[in-house]
Amino acid sequence: MNKKVLMAVLALAVVLLATPVMAKPGAEKNNDKFLSFVWHSENGIQTNLEGYPIYNPPGSTDSDARVIFVEATWQLKPEKNNYIQIGGESPIAIGAAGYEGHLYVQTTVFSSTYRESNYRTYERIMWDDNYVEIMCNERATLDTTLKPPFSASGTFVGHGLIDGQKVQLTGIREARQLPPRTLQLECIGTIRFLGIAP
């Protein structure tokens, strides 16, 4: 290799190694296009649209065992604490009229005290002239021998339009039961602003 070419390659390598990395994994945002995102809701109402059970599934030994498939809507209670928060801005309250939710749930009941569920959730959250749509996959367990008896976790992706800009969302979803009888659902992740929509 030509000595001048070798020296140029080595000089470039030194410059690249000395350049600081700007993106910080785990930081609240890596640049002005990424912000933290929270969707928080409490004690929604499930209304089943369609569902059917399969009793005594293969391999079951408990007389209570069954598999249940349900399609349902999910609605917010207007008096509860439901909000979106983007970055460090103040939370934006979301009322029942600003929300649409749809669920597909498969629940396996193993016994009278224990069951597992797989949820696919579709949500549309609206305020002013803005909206985000979120799709979530989560797994839940209900064990009445534990306190709290219910917990769930999963992931979500989404998109929407905020202040005229297209946005994309990703993150994790957590559900937990708080005493005395509050079911708290949270999507926590990042929102990416993609620019003005055409």
Q: How are the SSEs placed, and which strands pair?
A:
Layout: H1 3-18, E1 34-42, E2 45-55, E3 66-75, E4 83-86, E5 92-93, E6 99-109, E7 114-127, E8 130-143, E9 150-162, E10 165-178, E11 182-196
Antiparallel strand pairs: 1-4, 1-11, 2-3, 3-6, 4-5, 6-7, 7-8, 8-9, 9-10, 10-11
Molecular structure report:
The chain is mainly beta and 198 residues long. It has one domain. Helix content is 8%, strand content 59%. The chain is built from 1 helix and 11 strands. It has one helix at residues 3-18; strands at 34-42, 45-55, 66-75, 83-86, 92-93, 99-109, 114-127, 130-143, 150-162, 165-178, 182-196. It has an 11-stranded antiparallel sheet with strand order 2-3-6-7-8-9-10-11-1-4-5, with no helix packed on it. The longest helix has 16 residues, at 3-18. The radius of gyration is 23 Å and the shape is elongated. The relative contact order is 0.16. The model is unreliable at 12-30 (pLDDT under 50).
Key features of this structure:
11-stranded antiparallel β-sheet, mainly beta, 198 residues
